[in-house]
Amino acid sequence: VLYQRTFYNEDGTPVYDILMNQGKEEVYHFKDKIFYGKQAFVRAFMKSLNLNKSDLVILDRETGIGQVVFEEAQTAHLAVVVHAEHYSENATNEDYILWNNYYDYQFTNADKVDFFIVSTDRQNEVLQEQFAKYT
Q1: Which of 59, 17, 50, 56 has its CA nearest to residue 35?
Q2: Rounded distance, CA 120 to CA 114, Å?
Q3: pLDDT tens-digit profile of 60-79?
Q4: What distance lies between CA 39 and its chain's CA centroid?
Q5: Cα–Cα distance between 41 and 65 in angstroms, integer?
Q6: What is the mean pLDDT of residues 70-98?
Q7: Long-range CB contacts (within 8 A, 24+) of 105-111
Q8: Which pLDDT score is estimated for 87?
Q9: I need a labelling partner for 89 at 20 to 30 A (CA). Which of 12, 22, 78, 107 fits?
């Protein structure tokens, strides 16, 4: 099933289209360029920001774009939002932790994150203890 989404400027003129084939990669079509896949689109967008150390990138759910955001945000500060329980207690032992799949990339690459935004002080304490032990 192929479908299209069009995004518009405030004045009603079209900016770009996304062509999607269910379960397959998307094509982002602008007037003067085409990006094959969300990662290519996000990379180009982030490059256009000309980020520097006075900028802050906040990553909230990295699904499908984590690596690109991490790579492009290294000239800025990077924060990651942690909403939910971030690990599986049942699959964790003294030598191994199973991170929640929504946070696996961010936690595995925690050394590239300037700070994590968590919901509670207790979540912050647990996360710091786990990073010290497992990363």
Answers
A1: 17
A2: 18
A3: 988 889 999 999 999 999 99
A4: 10
A5: 10
A6: 89
A7: 105/62, 105/66, 105/67, 105/70, 106/59, 106/62, 106/66, 106/80, 107/131, 107/135, 108/135, 109/70, 110/135, 111/135
A8: 81
A9: 78
Q: What is the DSSP letter of 31?
A: S
Kindly tell me if the per-residue pLDDT of 1 is higher than 80.
no
Q: What percentage of residues in the chain have a pLDDT greater than 70? A: 99
Domains and CATH numbers, the chain: 1-36 (no CATH), 50-134 (3.40.50.2000)
Q: Which residue reads 């942690």 in tokens?
A: 82
Tokens for 7?
Answer: 């995004």
3-class DSSP assignment, residue 122: helix
Contact 100, 90 (CB under 8 A): no
The DSSP call for residue 67 is: H
**What is the C-alpha to C-alpha distance for residues 104 and 89, in angstroms, rounded to an integer?**
14
Claim: this prediction has a pTM higher than 0.85: no
Given pLDDT bands bounded at 50, 70 and 90, which one contains residue 92? confident
Contact call for residues 93 and 134 (beta carbons, < 8 A) = no
